[in-house]
Design a protein that fits this description.
It contains 8 helices and 10 strands. By secondary structure, it is an alpha/beta fold. The strands form 2 sheets. It has an 8-stranded parallel beta sheet with strand order 7-6-5-4-3-2-1-8. A two-stranded antiparallel ribbon has the order 9-10. Helix 1 runs parallel beside helix 8, helix 4 packs parallel to helix 5 and helix 5 runs parallel beside helix 6. The mean pLDDT is 97.
């Protein structure tokens, strides 16, 4: 089995730099953490790619809610995949489903084809599918190299039974990467129990607003999140 590695869900350049500094193998670059992550901007992808020597996998997700996209949205996704390739990314993270909730194998195959030679991680579309074991076979057929999943539970530790079954079913054909609720206190046991050799975390904390003046009447400015560097170091220490 390969040595365990860490992928960090990054919502910007700051976390991406932290991830490289602590020894993560890869960043999944996203925007909009509150909505579960959407496609980052051209500028964000380019800056992160230019600054990092580790793997960069932008998420290709035009919006939140579900993974069922109309033709215009899917065309946008293909444009974004080509942009990632032009910018020298190592891969993408993406998922597409049918209106029934099942994986859209044809569209996933198309995304893998357009992405080549970049790698393709299937993000948590498997957790939105009615049957995760059927979904896994569809993602293998589509040509994905790994699957980010919580085992159809709110957190990966809660979904460890399903994760273990997915690892057994995959039988080395694809990597099962547990994500959601992965922390330094549970990651070692989670990987040992499931047999997975990759894990995914954001370890996110709110970034303090350091602007000297803040109008108290403006309450919809939102928050900025970065990874907790100390927590990431503890996760790395737990899995090596």
């Amino acid at each position: 089995m390969p040595a365990a590695v860490l992928e960090v869900c990054s919502f910007g350049i700051q976390t991406s730099l932290i991830a490289e500094r602590v020894g993560a193998k890869r960043v999944e670059l996203c925007d909009n953490p509150i909505e579960g992550g959407t496609t980052p901007s051209y500028g964000a992808i380019r800056q992160v790619r230019e600054k990092l020597s580790i793997e960069v996998y932008p998420i290709i997700r035009p919006r939140s809610m579900n993974y069922y996209y109309d033709d215009d949205e899917f065309a946008m996704m293909l444009h974004d995949v080509r942009m990632c390739k032009e910018l020298g990314c190592d891969g993408i993270s993406v998922g597409v489903q049918l209106i029934t909730g099942q994986v859209d194998t044809d569209r996933m195959k198309r995304l893998v084809e357009v992405a080549y030679p970049m790698g393709v991680t299937s993000n948590r579309v498997i957790d939105a599918a009615p049957d995760p074991y059927e979904a896994l076979e569809a993602l293998i057929e589509a040509g994905c190299e790994r699957v980010l999943t919580s085992g159809q539970a709110a957190t990966a530790p809660a979904g460890k039974e399903v994760l273990k079954k997915l690892v057994e079913q995959a039988a080395g054909r694809i990597s099962i990467m547990p994500g959601a609720g992965v922390k330094s206190g549970n990651v070692k046991e989670l990987l040992q129990y499931t047999g997975a050799y990759e894990c995914h975390t954001s370890a996110r904390i709110a970034w303090p607003n350091n602007v000297a003046y803040q109008n108290p009447q403006i309450t919809d400015a939102g928050s900025m999140y970065v990874a907790d560097e100390e927590e990431l170091r503890k996760i790395i220490a737990a899995i090596v």
